[in-house]
Structures are given as structure tokens and as C-alpha cells.
What we know:
Elements: H1 18-21, E1 29-35, E2 50-51, E3 57-61, E4 79-86, E5 89-97, E6 107-108, E7 114-116, E8 122-126, E9 128-129, E10 143-148, E11 162-168, E12 174-175, E13 182-183, E14 189-193, E15 195-196, E16 203-210, E17 213-221, E18 229-230, E19 237-238, E20 244-248, E21 250-251, E22 258-265, E23 268-276, E24 291-292, E25 298-302, E26 312-319, E27 322-330, E28 344-347, E29 352-357, E30 369-376, E31 379-387, E32 401-402, E33 408-412, E34 422-427
Antiparallel strand pairs: 1-34, 2-3, 3-4, 4-5, 6-9, 7-8, 8-10, 10-11, 12-15, 13-14, 14-16, 16-17, 18-21, 19-20, 20-22, 22-23, 24-25, 25-26, 26-27, 28-29, 29-30, 30-31, 32-33, 33-34
Amino acid sequence: MRQTSRRIAVFFCFTFSLAVLSNIAQGQTYQVLYNFTGGADGGFPAAGLTMDAAGNLYGTAAEGGYTGGPCASDGGCGTVFKLTHRGSGWTFAPLYAFKGDSGNNDGAIPIAGVTIGPDGSLYGTTEAGGGGNCYYFQDGCGAVFKLSPPPALCKSALCPWNETVIYSVAYNNGFEALGDVIFDSAGNLYSTVALGGPLDGGYVFELTPSDGRWTEKTLYAFDPNNEDCNAPMAGLVFDASGNLYGTANNGCGALYGGAFQLVPSGSGWAENIILRLNGFGDGDGTTAPLTPDGRGDFYGTTSDLGPNEHGTIFELTPSDGGFVYSLVYGFGGAGGAYPAAPVTVASYASGHLYGTTGNSGGLGIGDGTVYEMTFSDGTWTQNVLHYFQGSDGKFPSSSVLIDANGNLYGTASQGGAYGQGVVWEIRP
Length: 428
């Protein structure tokens, strides 16, 4: 079993030539919106961003923040932050600093981003904290948290929000909650735990709110000893029929992981394996969630191997009750390598996908890319929108967020002015 790493976006870093940089798509304007310092603001932002109706950005940083107690040895237990759009600029504010377990019963190390819930609060997961004794961490096995603004009007830009741990993954002997959370129309929350659980292969869970409390139900436990998918390291998505879809880094009746569908069945859920990866042919390592395109298809990425040995983008198309796999793109050229993030579908009609890669260049060298895939006449074509160069960020593992004006937003886990990562924007 592959061991999950906190540094999921860390790859080999070398220099690459100005000739490669000339492949950047024309007409794009890149700027850094915020440079993390690794202090109270946080550091190592590994996840993508969330935007509210007012155009404000929310995200997480896996390190920095509180550095006392169990967080001292980790460089901080991480933060949740907000960027408010003011005129032509942005104002940064840390909303919460996680304190880890060790008497705090708090989360630690948020690898995933945050989701705005039906009540307007922010919800997310943490890799550690939340209680439990895990052999990876001394500060808990992971948690699901809720973060709400102060009940009274805050007159300071630095007013902290109120955090509540609503689920400890140690409850089911699990550890490492790495995926984003999603909600159904009834306000129930869903996500995954990567390791451990009832059958020791990770599990999918549902949290149901009632009278201010949340009740956990395990929807499906993965069995690594039965050719099942296991190690689900990403969140889930719904289809129009209420079925759940996800990816697994291991198993799925193969050596390289794949994708699964969970269908309500009686009082439980039944699993269908819809993708079995074979490595060099179609990729290895599905650490990102699937992305629906609005008409029933799903797009995904693999972080390694594939035909050019540096990861892939793939499409799953429904057919005869199952799904048909097709390769969209094999990384390994100047377009980047090792995509640890999901693709973003602008819209099915537009035929545009966006994403990031952790490295750049034909040999997987450099500091990463932001790319665009364009579909025309039955063929996908890649354009690189930005090559990271260290000083403007490096090693991105985030998804790409698109606003109503077509501007793109994301994070890079390292680099920037202080080497602790950045929030970036690309304007068309």
C-alpha cells in the first residue's frame, strides 16, 4: 500500500530553458494575489479555492498557523483563509488556525479545500487531529470540521471564525481524511477516509445533521483483500440520479487503482468498479476526484505513468450500463507532468478543460504549469497558460477555479516571495 504523504505536491525541481517558456499561450495575464509566509497566515496551500456569491475566495493552508503543542513539530497545524476582493486588489485574512489534538480535540493539516454548506458555513476535512492514535501522526487521525463566522458584527479584519469538529475519523478506526466534502439536497454531507476503517481499505461516509449534532453512517467500506478499490484519497461527486462516484489510489481489481460508482441498494449502497488502471497504458495513481461535465461524462487525472509516463487526463463515458474509458491527454512533453489535481470543466458546450501539473517540461522538470485543453474536430489540444518559475509559485496541486468573467484562480503549494506558496490569478 502506498503511504500517503503530506507533501503530495513535492516533485523534483530543476531549471528549464527559456525556449520551453516560449510555449506559454499568448494573451494571458498571471499575477500572485498572495504570498504565504508560513506564520500566522499559513503555508503550503495544497488545495483549490472556493468562491462565494460576492466573489470572495476561501481556501486552506496545510501548515503554519498555531505552532504550539502537537503542532510545533509540524511547522504549524494549518489554517483556513479568506481573500476579499476590494477594488482592483485583494485583502487576505486568516479565519482559523487548527490546534491539533492533544487536549484540543481539533483538526490538523487540511490537505483538502473548503466547501460552502447550505447554512453558509465552511466545511472541510483534515488529514490529522480530531482524536485517535495513528502511527503516522501523534496529533490524531483526521477530522471533518465546520467553520462559521462570528455571530456578532466584527469590526476587525482579523476576527477569527468559530470552528467545530463534527466528526472524528478515528470513530471508525480510520485515518487520513484527504478529500473535499459535498452536500446533497437534504443537507447531508459526504466524503471519504483514505485508510483504515471497518475493512482497512478506507471508506465512504455520510454525516446527517439533527438538532445541532451530526450522525455518521458508513456507506461503503473498501476491502483491499478482495480485489476491491481502496485508498480513496479524494472527495466524491453525485450524478443526476443520486449515485456517488469517486477514485481510489489502489486496487479496483488492478495494480494501479481506478474509479468506482456507489448506487443506493436497499438500506445500503452497492459498488460498481468503473475503471481499472493498467499503468503504462492508461496511468497510475488517481489521487484527484472525478469531474462531471453536465451530460453524464466524467473526467479524471492520473498522477503518473500512462503512454508518456508522466500522468494522464481521461474521460469516462456512460455506455450500456457501464462506462467506456478514453484517453484525453498523456503528459510527458512540454505541457507539464504529474497532475495531482482534478480537471475543471468550463462547460460541456465550450469544450474547455483546465488544470495544473506539479512539474514542467519534457522530462518532468521545472516548477509546474497551469494548462488548458481545447476540444475541436474530435481532437483535444493542450495550451500551457503559465509555467511556474519558483518566485511566482511552484509545485501546484490545486484545481482551477473559474469565475463568471473567465478568470482563473488557484494555489501553488510552495515558492513565492517566502517559499511557502501562493494564491494566483490568470486573466484571459
